[in-house]
Structure to design on (358 residues):
């Protein structure tokens, strides 16, 4: 943004310091003159006939006062310039850091030392902002790279299938169509998941009262055939609990959690979905049996395209690696909290806390 040039803050402070110092000196000299010279008679004999009169004293005092004011002006300008520079030094460091950040360098930190004051607080807030920006930009870059890779995979597979079918005249058309349909379905699922993730991040949805117990029951009913296919016992318990948000997004959140609990399980395992009301919060719990998870792996499960078991895709229910990332984004969009805790016997306990609604 173009602005007309003006005086720097340092020069303005210097002029202000010098001006106040000159004003204080002038007032002091005026007080001295008024307090002392008013007792000196204004006649030819002066005070008691031996001292100079008021006129002579004024003539003698004026050059000294002018010299003192000149010294105060010089001292005020020089001292004000140095003092203003010292006071504004933290702002210079903050401006340099902001300039570096504007050119893409988010790793720089001010790390202002010294006692706590307004400048130190501003520098600490700026460092915190840079750290969050660097983290978010890094996440976005990793997400873009992973999304590009994931979207490229089905296209590459489709190209390979078509190349093989083109070189082999005996390739069955039915098998070709079936394999292309599977790959295309996965690409569509991935694209829809990315769009849903973007929608929840922007918080562009209508808020309305939602009963989490009904949402949990609908999600479990939808995924019951999958649970039966994998010999998983699916149990839904709890009382009606109310929240405020998007019914569609909260249903997708519960569906992702239940599907994740079914897929990442062991044969003859269990999945328990429970809703309860806690103080100022509506809580959804999804707990499953499964293989033990390393504690250091759990915090990464909500990152896009992270799969807890590093499994090989075996069927259409294995997902695209965005399940918990979408859940985390939906919970944040509803001002809630998501907690993941590994179970000692194996499996995962997922706790979703949403602000209680009426």
């Amino acid at each position: 943004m173009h602005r007309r040039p003006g005086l720097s803050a340092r020069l303005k402070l210097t002029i202000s310091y010098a001006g106040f110092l000159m004003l204080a000196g002038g007032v002091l000299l005026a007080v001295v003159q008024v307090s002392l010279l008013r007792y000196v008679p204004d006649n030819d004999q002066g005070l008691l006939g031996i001292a100079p009169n008021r006129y002579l004293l004024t003539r003698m005092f004026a050059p000294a006062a002018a010299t003192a004011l000149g010294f105060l002006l010089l001292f005020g300008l020089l001292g004000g310039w140095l003092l203003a520079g010292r006071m504004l030094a933290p702002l210079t460091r903050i401006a340099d850091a902001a300039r570096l950040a504007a050119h893409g360098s988010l790793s720089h930190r001010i790390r202002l030392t010294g006692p706590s004051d307004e400048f130190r607080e501003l520098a600490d807030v700026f460092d915190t902002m840079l750290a969050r920006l660097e983290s978010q930009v890094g996440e976005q870059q990793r997400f873009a790279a992973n999304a590009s890779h994931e979207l490229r995979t089905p296209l590459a597979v489709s190209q390979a299938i078509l190349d093989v079918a083109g070189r082999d005249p005996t390739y069955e058309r039915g098998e070709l169509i079936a394999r292309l349909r599977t790959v295309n379905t996965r690409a569509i699922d991935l694209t829809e998941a990315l769009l849903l993730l973007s929608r929840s991040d922007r918080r562009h949805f209508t808020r309305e009262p939602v009963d989490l117990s009904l949402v949990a029951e609908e999600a479990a009913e939808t995924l019951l055939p999958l649970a039966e296919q994998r010999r998983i016992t699916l149990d839904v318990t709890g009382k009606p609990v109310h929240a405020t948000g998007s019914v569609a997004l909260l249903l997708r959140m519960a569906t992702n959690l239940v599907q994740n609990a079914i897929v990442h399980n062991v044969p003859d395992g269990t999945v328990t979905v429970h809703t309860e009301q806690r103080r100022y919060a509506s809580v959804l719990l999804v707990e499953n049996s499964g293989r033990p998870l390393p504690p250091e792996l759990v915090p990464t499960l909500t990152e896009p395209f992270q799969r807890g078991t590093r499994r090989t895709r075996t069927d259409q229910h294995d997902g695209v690696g965005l399940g918990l990332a979408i859940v985390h984004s939906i919970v944040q969009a509803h001002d809630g909290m998501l907690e993941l805790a590994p179970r000692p016997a194996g499996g995962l306990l997922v706790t979703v806390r949403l602000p209680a609604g009426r």
In short: Helices lie at 9-37, 54-102, 118-167, 173-202, 212-229, 247-263, 323-333. The two ends are 48 Å apart (CA to CA). Residues 32 and 310 are 88 Å apart (CA to CA).
